[in-house]
């Protein structure tokens, strides 16, 4: 449990973030007051540092701090692949997707799909994006945050969740994207600082890298240092699963998910958008070392008898002792840090939780207003669109809280969230990739691929949960994502020949005529050039994978 000083630090930080959010969201309005462009896209004024930090903050939440530490304890560095592989998809975002998004001036990604395909594609993506934001970005984050706050402060999980939801909703719903991005930039710094503190504490307690590897070697656990596992690995995360399955999840998440890409849509110009995405790619190197590695240090400390996990253990149904590793991060805070610093770490956890929820709420408000309400009320005023967005955020908060008991059944929160994504992403990744790289991808083919692919993913997910013994039940979720994606690709290609494309003036400008075309924009001079940054990032990631292979 934490002391009075830690509680005071945490409360002061939360009030500080709420104040900053309200100030940022209300200090600058455009001539129309509550104009939707100002509220949803920050008036398209965002520069690359803020975009990169906001992308990172929206991605990294309390869920990541808790679940990546858990995965480090359970399986070592393996799940760090979700962090490092993101760098490659952010390069794809910067090189191939950003130009279309910025040049077309779309406020939402469903709007982009309508211009490239048709209205039915827009409607379906808007619906799926709202549902996924509620489940993936809000509900899972609430769950992780509630577990941590209950363990640290002894507050009932649902009470702490309701309070955080109310405070985050306050500045997000009032201030819009500007409030979200400004607070996310602050929260990124606090979150990274907190993660560095716990990493240093674990490193110091262990005595460094060599003592940790010696303990792992002694207990036959050196495979925990490997990022690339052989085919057929019992973890279900072999190198094949990582390199074939992750791009399906990653392209949807980083290139086609409104919650993430909205920060790019608010960019001042194309160069700021591209460099902001690449900046985030460099920052994504850090989580393996400051989120996953501390969990591995905790495992080595446990093996050497210097970390007490008895509070996480209970008797299983068969009478054997079971360790619930969801609480590993909290355990590290309470056992490795002195009073005062625990409050800083609690503030870092709340930072991640609030930034994730704030970003998701803003994207839900944008989707509900632009892609749903405005379709049926095209004459709606700017003020009315903002009102609808705000009410949508309130409903999303309530829905996410109601889902918590169901999602809490997952033993590993990180695997749970990626299991859900693996069944949502394939059809969306397919229609976006074929849409921008293949001019023959037709509107009808995309429409039917989204419908059938989404229903197929939902059916497979339900079958695996209701009937785990079915033939597909043993397929790792990463490979399942790849198989579903390939099914969608074959489906859309076949349907494109059955229903040939008929391009409009808009759609004919929204796919690349050649692979070299997106690289023809000059960009900034010097090291800030997007092509130079992309090459450097690829080389850095290749070197890291070689070292931790």
UniProtKB/TrEMBL annotation:
CDD domains the record matches: SLC5sbd_SGLT1-like
InterPro entries given in the database record: Na/Glc_symporter_sf, Na/solute_symporter
Database matches in Pfam families: SSF
TM segment ranges: 6-25, 46-69, 84-103, 124-149, 155-174, 186-204, 236-255, 276-302, 344-370, 391-408, 420-439, 446-463, 475-499, 530-548
MF-aspect GO terms: D-glucose:sodium symporter activity
Major site of localization recorded for this protein: membrane
Membrane topology reported for the UniProt record: Multi-pass membrane protein
UniProt record similarity statement: Belongs to the sodium:solute symporter (SSF) (TC 2.A.21) family.
Protein name: Sodium:solute symporter
């Amino acid at each position: 449990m934490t002391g009075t000083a830690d509680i005071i630090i945490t409360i002061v930080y939360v009030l500080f973030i709420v104040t900053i959010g309200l100030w940022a969201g209300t200090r600058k309005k455009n001539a129309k007051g509550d104009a939707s462009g100002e509220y949803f896209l920050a008036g398209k004024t965002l520069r690359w540092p803020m975009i990169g930090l906001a992308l990172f903050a929206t991605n990294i939440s309390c869920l990541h701090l808790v679940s990546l530490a858990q995965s480090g304890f359970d399986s070592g560095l393996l799940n760090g692949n979700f962090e490092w592989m993101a760098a490659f998809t952010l390069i794809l975002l910067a090189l191939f997707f950003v130009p279309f998004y910025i040049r077309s001036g779309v406020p939402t990604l469903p709007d982009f799909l309508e211009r490239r395909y048709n209205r039915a594609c827009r409607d379906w993506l808007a619906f799926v994006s709202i549902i996924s934001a509620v489940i993936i970005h809000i509900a899972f984050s609430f769950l992780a945050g509630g577990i941590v706050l209950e363990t640290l402060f002894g507050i009932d999980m649902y009470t702490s969740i309701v309070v955080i939801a109310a405070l985050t909703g306050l500045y997000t719903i009032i201030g819009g994207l500007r409030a979200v991005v400004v607070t996310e930039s602050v929260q990124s710094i606090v979150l990274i600082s907190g993660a560095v503190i716990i990493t240093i504490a674990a490193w110091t307690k262990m005595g460094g890298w060599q003592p940790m590897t010696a303990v792992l070697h002694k207990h036959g656990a050196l495979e925990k240092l490997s990022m690339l596992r052989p085919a057929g690995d019992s973890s279900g995360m072999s190198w094949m699963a990582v390199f074939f399955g992750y791009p399906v999840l990653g392209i949807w998440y980083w290139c086609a998910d409104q919650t993430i890409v909205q920060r790019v849509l608010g960019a001042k110009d194309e160069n700021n958008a591209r460099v902001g995405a690449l900046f985030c790619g460099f920052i994504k190197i850090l989580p393996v070392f400051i989120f996953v590695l501390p969990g591995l240090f905790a495992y080595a400390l446990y093996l050497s008898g210097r970390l007490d996990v008895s509070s996480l253990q209970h008797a299983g149904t068969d009478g054997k002792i079971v360790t619930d590793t969801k609480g590993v991060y909290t355990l590290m805070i309470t056992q490795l840090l002195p009073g005062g610093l625990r409050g800083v770490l609690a503030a870092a956890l709340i930072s991640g939780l609030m930034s994730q929820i704030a970003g998701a709420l803003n994207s839900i408000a944008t989707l509900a207003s632009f892609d749903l309400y405005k379709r049926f009320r095209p004459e709606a005023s700017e003020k009315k669109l903002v009102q609808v967005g705000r009410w949508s955020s309130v409903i999303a908060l309530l829905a996410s809280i109601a889902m918590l008991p169901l999602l809490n059944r997952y033993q590993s929160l990180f695997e749970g969230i990626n299991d859900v994504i693996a069944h949502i992403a394939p059809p969306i990744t397919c229609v976006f990739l074929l849409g921008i790289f293949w001019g023959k991808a037709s509107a009808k083919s995309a429409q039917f691929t989204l419908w059938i692919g989404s229903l197929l993913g939902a059916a497979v997910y339900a079958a695996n949960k209701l009937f785990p013994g079915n033939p597909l039940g043993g397929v790792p979720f990463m490979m399942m994502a790849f198989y579903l994606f390939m099914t969608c690709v074959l489906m859309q290609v076949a349907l494109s020949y059955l229903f040939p494309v008929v391009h409009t003036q808009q759609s004919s400008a929204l796919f690349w005529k050649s692979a070299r075309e997106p690289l023809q924009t000059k960009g900034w001079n010097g090291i800030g050039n997007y092509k130079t940054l992309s090459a450097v990032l690829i080389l850095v990631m290749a070197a890291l994978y070689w070292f931790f292979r």
